């Protein structure tokens, strides 16, 4: 069968992935230097409440005061009864402007000072997307997840209204995915600049549209909806294992066509369909890939400006790690082809 290079068209001069399926059969006898977690605790073994968890109901005073919540009418902020709760991160990666630079101001580094720095301004919020300590994307149910996503949209609108250029929204589920707390939550990073990787992806998509008069994501979705990498369809949305996947069982989700003029996730009317499809996809990944930790990235467009890009979601299970070759070259070796992965996932969704 041989090995092949595959390049992600969303990346400018992207590093190729090497698909080498035969390597999946290699023996493994290397010892572990540290204890290796088996990923998220299965839902049937995870408690619904942990008295030591600051995100569990009843422990609201353990977090900064909430900035938004979905809760029954009449219940007070920072008290139990909520369905979704958003709080500032107690240990933020970004800090709000103290009155100096404003969101969108240009950041200037001294060109001749290799040790120059400046404040990293922004908002870092936690969206606690279930009162159930043991809940996960695959288990909390479509209705609860849809409520969570509506809150995501509300916070994205608030960040836009506050003048932040863009927000990065991620879910880290499991220790290997970067989660420090087991309780289900998402993190939102409103930044004063467009992150470099997103900026490059936007540039690539705008250039693609200039050359061909079509959106790159539209062409990808059209091609993948009928390919052997197609995983599932959920109403107006399609899930597929990308041709250029960097890890086994990686899945992307997007609308079959644009759902708003802006392309922003906050303007999408399809959160119910997305909630249901993410639940199906994450359950399938858990079934076929040994219930790995995973990251979910809502790849959104900036809050302002005009772009040919539109939102989509990337589900990236932690099914492989970067070894010496990947660190040395920037290229990933994929031992399960997207076609094989999609075939296994289709049987479970």
| CATH A-level architecture | 2-Layer Sandwich
Domain count: the total is 1
Shape summary = globular
Structural class by helix and strand composition: alpha+beta
Proportion of strand residues: 15-25%
Task: Let me know the average pLDDT.
Answer: 88
| Distance, first to last CA | 28 Å
Strand order, biggest sheet? 3-4-5-7-6-11-12-10-9-8
Number of helical runs?
6
The whole-angstrom Rg is: 21 Å
- Helix and strand element order: EEEEEHEEHHEEEHEEHEH
Helix content: 10-25%
CATH class: Alpha Beta
CATH topology value: HIT family, subunit A
Fourth CATH level, the homologous superfamily: HIT-like
Largest sheet: 10 strands, antiparallel
Q: Count all strands and give the number.
A: 13
Describe this structure in words.
- The chain is of the alpha+beta class and 349 residues long.
- It has one domain (42-89, 119-346): HIT family, subunit A, CATH 3.30.428.10.
- The chain is 23% helix and 19% strand.
- The chain is built from six helices and 13 strands.
- It has helices at 142-161, 196-212, 216-225, 271-289, 324-329, 338-346; strands spanning 4-6, 17-19, 68-70, 84-88, 122-128, 166-173, 185-191, 230-234, 237-240, 251-255, 294-299, 312-317, 332-334.
- The strands form two sheets. The protein has a ten-stranded antiparallel sheet with strand order 3-4-5-7-6-11-12-10-9-8, sandwiched between helices.
- α1 packs across α4.
- It is globular.
């Amino acid at each position: 069968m041989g090995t092949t290079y595959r390049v992600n068209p969303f990346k400018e001069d992207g590093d190729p992935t090497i698909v080498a399926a035969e390597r999946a059969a290699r023996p493994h006898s290397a010892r572990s230097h540290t204890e290796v977690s088996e990923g998220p605790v299965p839902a049937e073994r995870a408690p619904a409440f942990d008295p030591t968890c600051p995100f569990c109901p009843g422990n609201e005073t353990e977090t900064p005061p909430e900035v938004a919540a979905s809760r029954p009418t009449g219940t007070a902020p920072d008290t139990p009864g909520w369905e979704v709760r958003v709080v500032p991160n107690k240990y933020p990666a970004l800090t709000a402007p103290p009155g100096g630079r404003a969101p969108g101001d240009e950041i200037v580094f001294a060109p001749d000072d290799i040790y120059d720095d400046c404040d990293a301004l922004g908002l870092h919020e936690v969206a606690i997307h279930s009162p159930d300590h043991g809940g996960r994307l695959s288990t909390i149910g479509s209705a609860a997840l849809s409520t969570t996503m509506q809150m995501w949209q509300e916070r994205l609108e608030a960040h836009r209204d506050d003048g932040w250029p863009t927000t990065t929204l991620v879910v880290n589920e499991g220790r290997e995915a970067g989660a420090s707390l087991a309780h289900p939550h998402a993190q939102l990073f409103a930044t004063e600049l467009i992150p470099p990787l997103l900026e490059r992806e936007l540039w690539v998509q705008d250039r693609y549209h200039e050359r061909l008069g079509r959106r790159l994501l539209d062409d990808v979705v059209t091609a993948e909806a009928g390919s052997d990498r197609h995983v599932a369809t959920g109403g107006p949305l399609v899930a597929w294992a990308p041709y250029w996947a960097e890890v086994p069982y990686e899945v992307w989700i997007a609308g079959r066509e644009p759902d708003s003029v802006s392309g922003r996730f906050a303007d999408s009317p399809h959160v119910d369909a997305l909630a249901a499809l993410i639940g199906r996809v994450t359950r399938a990944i858990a079934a076929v890939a040994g219930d790995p930790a995973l990251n979910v990235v809502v790849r959104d467009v900036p809050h302002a400006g005009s772009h040919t890009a539109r939102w989509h979601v990337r589900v990236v299970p932690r099914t492989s790690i970067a070894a010496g070759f990947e660190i040395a070259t920037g290229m990933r070796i994929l031992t399960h082809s997207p076609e094989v992965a999609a075939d296994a996932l289709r049987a479970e969704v």
